[in-house]
Amino acid sequence: MSEELISKKNLLEKMNISYGQLYRWKRKKLIPEEWFIKKSVSTGQETFFPREKVEKRIRKILELKDDVSLDKLAEQFTCDLSKFSIEKKELINLNIVSENVIESFEKNIVSVDVYLKKEIFSLILYNRLLSSGKLNINEVNEIITALFNGYADLKEENFIIIKRKLGVVFYYTLEKSEEILIDKEAVLLFKVNVEEIFSFISKIKR
Amino acid sequence: MSNLNSVSIMGDGTISAGNFEKIKIMGSAEVVGQVKCNFFKVMGSCDVKENISMEDGKISGDVTVDKNIEVSNELKILGNLTCKGNGKVKKTVVLGEGNINGNLLSEEVIVKGELNVDGDCECTKVDSKGSINVKGLLTADEIDIDSLDTCYITEIGGSRVTIQKSSRTIFRPRHGKVISKVIEADEIVLEDTKCDVVRGKDINILKGCTIGRVEYSGTLKVDKNSKVLEEVCQKN
After folding, report:
1. Among A23, A89, B148, B177, which residue is least crowded by beta carbons within 10 Å?
2. DSSP secondary structure of B127-162
């Protein structure tokens, strides 16, 4: 299902922003490169954006830009977090997760001294799934292992869905938050908002 | 970096990976590993096989960088630089010839020679009195181009774009024009420019321009010696 697009000129008018602002935010990676979609129209080449996403992003930028620098804003928005790293002991000191959870994570998923974005994302979700009591340890290990291995394909706008049907747990990712066809017999256990976890991680950084 | 060694090559030499205070090449050198230094100066020729980063650089000879170049302060190109990867520079001054095969990210770009970028050129301020060619997007808050030769810039976008000849033409007549597909900015002034589509708020088309379509939301002025095939006003 293709998402609704808005042209650049309509976007500027609707959000009351200038070309200068839009190009500046593009340079600062506040608006991702992949959101700039070029299409041929009757009047030549025009640029379009995924309407819902870009309007939400611009509203956020306008709300925060006077209080936070554009570079800090970019860190908050980008799910790249490429420079993020945190040591295991700091995770424990900050009470992000308990020592027991880290031990289990390192035994079943991956063992590192310095957690980068992939490891910290997986650990945070591991902690949430275990703490809920809705899944047993084997189910959590399977889900997090699959996530860890497929991490590179994960996007900020994804949702991770975990359900149980007839005693069997299954899981998948969604591009948007709404499902089209829902199996009424399957019980929804978790709907994980990837953007929320990235936002949580970015606040750990100092 | 104050306790670092410096390297000076007068004839032929090889520099391996490491951190240095100064690298000075007056002959011919090959840098075979990833190198970081405070000051990089080449008066001869140098082939850099890996990424190179520096605080300041001055290239008076010929330098080829096979990967990426990063300069935290100023890069002055008086000779010839070819970077096959991306460039990330605080201030780029091109008096000779600069060729970037990837993207160039630079807060300030001053061109009096020739700058060629195969990818995008993203800056805060661009001031070109030489020749600037960008195959991707040239974007900056302020873009000032007074072209010596014909410049090909696929897309131009920013806050203020001025393509105009300076009045000081006695010793160096400026015949250059700018050829672009799209120019978008809030304030646009164009002279001797050929462009398919110009979009902006306040647009002033001076002499010598051929524009396919102008879309404006503020004001539009068109010199009688220019051609605009279609004008579209988008005021509310």
Report:
1. A89
2. EESSEEEEEEEEEEEEEEE--SS-EEEEEEEEEEEE
Task: Locate B234 and state its tokens.
Answer: 């988008």
Place of tokens 């020592």: A99
Give me B211's structure tokens.
């524009």
Distance between CA atoms of B145 and B125, rounded to whole angstroms?
Answer: 11
C-alpha separations of B55 from A131, B1, B21 in Å:
49, 11, 10
Identify whether the C-beta of residue B82 lies closer than 8 Å to the C-beta of residue B116. Answer: no
- CB contacts of A70 in chain B (<8 Å) are none
3-state DSSP helix/strand/coil % of chain B, to nearest 5: 0, 65, 35
Helices (H), chain A: 8-15, 19-27, 51-64, 70-77, 88-93, 99-108, 117-132, 137-149, 194-204
Chain A positions in Cβ-Cβ contact with residue B233 (cut-off 8 Å): none
Cα–Cα distance, B143 to B161 (Å, whole number): 5
* Confidence at residue A1, expressed as pLDDT on a 0 to 100 scale: 47
Closest chain A residue to B142 measured between Cα atoms?
A20
Confidence of residue B167 (pLDDT cuts 50, 70, 90): low
Query: Contact A20/B158, CB-based, under 8 Å?
Result: yes
Instruction: Please state the ipTM of this predicted complex.
Output: 0.91
Contact yes or no for A44 and B122 at CB 8 A: no
**Would you call B160 and A20 a contact, using CB atoms and an 8 Å cutoff?**
yes
Q: What is the pLDDT of residues B57-94, one digit of tens each?
A: 999 999 999 999 999 999 999 999 999 999 999 999 99
